[in-house]
Design a protein that fits this description.
heterodimer; A: 3 helices; elongated; B: about 5% strand
Chain lengths: ~120, ~140
């Protein structure tokens, strides 16, 4: 079971933020293309950073607390999932706050470039 | 480069992306900072699990803090906060800001801009005048 430790943390993040979509109408999951276009470029940079850090032994992962599924460069599956799950959780948080507070983020139809 | 140096560079890149390249100016908006304050709390919690249980470990030569070969790093001190190296805050900020810059930029360009978030549920106390119109 302890092999699932890191995956468990990811599941906590996913469920900890996922409800914001339905309870506060964050309306993130209705925008899959925008999600992919926002996440993938940052993920690509973070994977490069992660591979460099792993190669230089900046950090490493407990083989007993990860699934053992690794990509080339000893990049654990969990790290790649982290770069997907955590940004979605962040966007959900931002959009949930926008739903509740009504603060502009600059991409609203009726709002121009100006900062309020 | 050390983790400390790359972390500072990553934050700088994210800020330049926000203020200069994509001009989303999220760091000038409370609509970014309140959610970020929430996010960083949960980062400290979840990252504290990852580092406190030593699922992820760090080399003292790459971070401000030292090595802790014999066990759990300190909860706070020696360059650590909630067991995690403070560099993780740079990593997290750069990742979140970077993704949000693209998210807002694509929205401004009309990629799945609508429906905008909201309205809040009926039980949520709506106080201010700044409420979005109903769909």
């Amino acid at each position: 079971m302890q092999h699932l430790a890191y995956l468990g943390v990811l599941a906590f993040i996913a469920f900890g933020a996922g409800w914001l979509e339905f309870v506060f109408r964050a309306r993130v999951f209705t925008k899959p293309l925008r999600l992919v276009l926002s996440i993938v470029p940052v993920m690509a940079l973070l994977v490069v950073w992660d591979l460099y850090a792993i190669a230089r032994h900046h950090w490493w992962f407990d083989p007993h607390r990860t699934t053992g599924i690794v990509f080339p460069g000893h990049l654990p599956l969990e790290e790649v999932l982290f770069f997907i799950v955590t940004p979605i959780a962040g966007i959900l948080t931002v959009e949930a706050v926008r739903s509740l507070k009504g603060w502009s983020l600059g991409d609203e139809v009726e709002v121009a470039d100006d900062v309020p | 480069m050390t983790y400390t140096q790359i972390g500072i560079l990553a934050v700088a890149i994210a800020l330049v992306a926000d203020l200069v390249v994509f001009r989303t100016k999220l760091v000038l908006r409370k609509g970014f900072w309140l959610p970020y304050a929430i996010i960083v709390c949960f980062q400290l919690l979840t990252n504290g699990v990852l580092t406190g249980f030593m699922i992820v470990r760090y080399s003292g030569s790459a971070i401000i803090g030292g090595n802790h070969p014999s066990g759990t790093p300190p909860f706070i001190g020696d360059g650590r906060i909630a067991y995690a190296p403070i560099e993780d805050l740079l990593f997290g900020f750069a990742m979140i800001l970077g993704v949000l810059v693209l998210w807002i930029w694509w929205g401004k360009r009309g990629v799945q801009r609508t429906p905008i978030a909201g309205p809040p549920p009926k039980w949520w106390p709506t106080t201010g005048p700044l409420r979005r119109r109903p769909d």
